[in-house]
Amino acid sequence: MERMQKQKGQVMQPVTMAVLIAVVILSELPSFSALINSSSLSAIPEKPVSRLAADTMDKTYKLLPSNFVKIPERYPWYESQSIRYIRCDEPLCIDVHESTTHKCKNTELCYYEISYHDEATSKGLLVTDTFALHLKGGSPISPTLAIGSSTYYSSKGRLNSQSTTHGMLGLGKGKISILSQLHKQGNFANIFGHCLSSNPGVSGGVSGFMFIGKDFDYPRCLTWVPMSSDVSHYSLTTAEVIYGDHEQSLLGRNQAFVLDSGTTDTYFLDPMYQELLTKVTKTTLQKAPGDGKHPICWKDTRPFTSILDLKNRFSSIYLRLQNGKALEIPAENYLIITEAGYACLGIFNSGDIELSFNLIGAISMQNVTIVYDNERQQIGWARVAGCSQPPVGICTS
């Protein structure tokens, strides 16, 4: 879920897998922070690389300690006595290569290499292992799941490092995703959802929660909109994009959006991005220097101390879909506060990272319950007062 990092004034951290509270709790993995990503393959950094694995990979990649994600000492590396390495000619390996470009010989282990929207890369070997999951009512199940045993993780460009996260929880539409595997085994409906807190860690709070399955009490204010037929991404059907509540503030028509909580920021294609800049730069605030990552910033006579200080300075962005329903992205879900107390735009040009589509990232999902219902091909969206734990907080719109 960012690749989510801490930013002064707007703290964002990854949802903890140990807090999959609603329908499934991953209780017997090591204490572990994961990004919830719309890719298919889940990946966990592996400490000991077996001789067989090393023989398979060291012809191309050096497996040095510096290649591993830096995990704090209190978190152990992923180790298991029941782990089984998948060979390249097995169906699971064919499934994972549906979403990757790497090919291998049938005599080798199943090696994968995946690049994410934020230019991060994960490399490793596909394995299966048995996990203990506890259902909402407390009864346990022990499914065998395929995951990536990651021997290398790198992150470059705008979307920063993984220093506070220890793996990737892939919940995409591919056959190899955790969601698809659990559904195929008859454990859960093909539905999941999440809520990312805007204030993780405050007063003992958590970063948010997620759930898998249909046994969940949705917020009454949940707005259901059609999911696009895109087989690779969770996407909204085309929408009008409006800045504020005036027709004169139209930013773009027939705009499709990918939803990916594994990317921190939100991205707009040109010319819609340029239209947005035209609107937001009309603010009465003074221009301020950027912080390196955020080039478009403003300042007031006094430093901003809360993202809520900006609610009356900038308008909400609305995505109005063809069914007449609209999804709101308030100012606090596309702006951040820097350490210097400046307000900066958290929406970027898709071209900056060579995206060919609009993308709604984690910044715009804060305090929003989002449900991905693959069975009815719909997405639910509800702004809520907080994401500390189910049942979901009070609706705010």
UniProtKB/TrEMBL annotation:
Residues 19-382 form the Peptidase A1 domain. It holds the Pfam family TAXi_C. GO terms for molecular function: aspartic-type endopeptidase activity. PROSITE patterns: PEPTIDASE_A1. One of its GO terms (biological process) is proteolysis. It comes from the Eukaryota. Gene3D superfamilies: Acid Proteases (2.40.70.10). Belongs to the peptidase A1 family. PANTHER family: ASPARTYL PROTEASES, EUKARYOTIC ASPARTYL PROTEASE FAMILY PROTEIN. This is Peptidase A1 domain-containing protein.
